[in-house]
Amino acid sequence: MLPPVFPVLNIAEIQAYVGNSPARIYDFQDVPQDCAKPYIAFTQVANSPFDGLKGAPCADLDTIQIDVYALDKAQCRAIAKLVRAALYAQDICNQMTLQQKEVDTNLYRISIDADFIA
Q: Euclidean distance between the first and final Cα of the chain, in Å?
């Protein structure tokens, strides 16, 4: 439960796009109103404990939705590829679940679901 998403994503390659002081990587999809672009937002969408017959669960499977937002397609795709590489470097399974241009914000968005096991 409550996996370390921020440390996995807060790496130099991603910071080159989203800054580092602070990095524009937001938990709970808690993005400030006038946030600079691009940015990453994430939230936990599921938790499944590995229950046993006795005692507390030995581990949890946490599914995290990671959303990359950018002003153009190329930048959104580049950051999404870096997010996937960062997840793979930590042996975290993931899949792209959404690619769209949001009508209200005019931002490009790629969503990735990542399964953290702890």
A: 7
Strands (E) in the chain, as ranges, are: 25-27, 39-49, 60-70, 93-101, 108-117
pTM of the model as a whole: 0.92
CA dihedral 12, 17, 23, 24 (to 10 degrees): -150
- 11-47 pLDDT, tens digit per residue, is 999 999 999 999 999 999 999 999 999 999 999 999 9
The sign of the CA dihedral 49, 25, 78, 70 is positive
Q: How far apart are CA 31 and CA 52, in angstroms?
A: 38
Residue 42 in 3-state DSSP? strand
Q: Backbone dihedral region of 112: left (phi > 0), alpha (psi from -120 to 50 degrees) or beta?
A: beta
